Amino acid sequence: MTSLSRRAFVTAATASLLAGCGPRPHPAASAAPSAGPPTPGRAPAGAVRALARSVPVRLAIPAIGVDTPVLRLGLAADGSVQVPPVTDHDRAGWYRHSPTPGQVGPSVILGHVTVGAYGDGVFRHLDRLRRGDGIAVRLENGASAGFTVTTVRTVAKAHFPTEAVYGDVDRPELRLITCGGPRTGGGYPDNVIVFAALSGRTS
């Protein structure tokens, strides 16, 4: 975990739950103390070696037609995670207090499913991803981190799996998060969460 303690990161990130797709809730989550951050560069036997820290600049998901620049997101004034701005041709955003893609730990990228009057968002088809689909993240240093989808989950925001999404892991992983479920006047009731693991690197 970088920049923030794991407790602060989980608290802030959970509070968002990609609230930008609807009303933004006030932070209220907390997490159990961590046993300590994972050691950079360490991964299970046979796993792809972790990459050096480098900020993501572009995200490509061929299976659902995504090819987007990646913004950097921090914390909003209320302590929740920022979400990408609601604009035409919106972009995905990387939460800068999470590991960069390819580092050990869960790197978090958020995107909208809809963007108000502009219509569909960049992650409008995120729920169509399936196990084995590929994801490529271009990094600022020129390398590209390749990930393979392991799980796609749709969960009620009221029962967001905080530990599964933001908890420590001993290998480089990626989380893509957007809203899901039927849209109502109050927004969306669910979150779509894609879990992926590092599968390779190209320069």
TrEMBL record:
PROSITE patterns assigned to the protein according to its UniProt record, in alphabetical order: PROKAR_LIPOPROTEIN, TAT
MF-aspect GO terms: hydrolase activity
Annotated region (Disordered), positions in chain: 23-45
Keyword Endoplasmic reticulum: no
Gene3D superfamilies: Sortase
Source organism superkingdom: Bacteria
Listed InterPro entries: Sortase, Sortase_dom-sf, Sortase_F, TAT_signal
Keywords: Hydrolase, Signal
Signal peptide: 1-19
NCBIfam families per record: class_F_sortase
Protein name in UniProt: Peptidase C60 sortase A and B
Originating species: Streptomyces bungoensis
